[in-house]
Amino acid sequence: MAAIGDCRPECGACCIAPSISTPMPGHPAGKAAGEPCANLTADLRCRLWGRIERPSFCAGLRPSVEMCGDNRQQAIAWLSALEQATRP
To answer: Looking at the domain assignment, is residue 6 inside a domain?
Structure first.
């Protein structure tokens, strides 16, 4: 699918739906799926964007039509399904 450019304002789906297994500021043991990241700002942006502390998992996510869908709810549903499908 084609990239859609920048993240959708006030979405934060990729900072909520997936689990993150590596330590990061605010989550020394990682983050559970469905748990909002401690680094998510009030306007649902990443406080670690562009910083070295940002987990490589996060840096690897790129907005796409497939992942982001038409709205925040679709993005959370897609990422949640991916989380379930890839759970060990």
So the answer is: no
